[in-house]
Design brief:
alpha+beta; Alpha-Beta Plaits
């Protein structure tokens, strides 16, 4: 794990709010020099603290579609069975998030499909054709009240 000081945490917090800002603007907001901001951000990327930089698309702007949270319970929970399902779920473009959880179901998936027929096709590919899937429970979104990918920054230890 990379040791993060207060400046690193400030930079990460600012980047999570708006990663499109220029290095000059980022440095000014973080109260560091542009060279320091650039050097630290590069180090955070190289260390894997910053996984990637993405654009978050407003679902309503592209014709929202169908969002669901899906619980999946497997019949056999051996390591190889869990890994096999996980590989298939992660490879599925409609699966936005895949969490192996405990206790309860074996997996919780967050999926986004264009519509119900697209969801039905996903069900056939990912759940019905897998003889090891025992139970699937889906919760369909009627309204998104909050979506925040930002991770709150705790103060640096010290």
């Amino acid at each position: 794990m990379t040791e993060l000081d207060a400046t690193d945490r400030r930079l990460l917090d600012l980047l999570q709010q708006d990663a499109s800002r220029s290095n000059q603007d980022l440095a000014a907001a973080a109260h560091v020099s542009p060279a320091t901001a650039l050097r630290r951000v590069r180090r955070l990327v190289e260390a894997g603290v910053i996984e990637r930089t993405v654009a978050i698309v407003a679902p309503d702007a592209i014709g929202r579609g169908l969002d669901a949270v899906v619980e999946v319970t497997l019949d056999r929970q051996g390591a190889e069975h869990l890994a096999a399902f996980e590989v298939r779920a992660v490879a599925e473009p409609s699966v936005q998030q895949c969490w192996r959880v405990s206790p309860g179901p074996d997996f919780v998936l967050v999926v986004h499909c264009a519509d119900m027929p697209a969801y039905d096709a996903l069900v056939q590919r990912l759940f019905t054709q897998d003889a090891n899937v025992r139970n699937v429970k889906a919760y369909f979104s009627v309204r998104r009240a909050k979506f925040e990918p930002r991770i709150p920054m705790r103060p640096a230890a010290g």
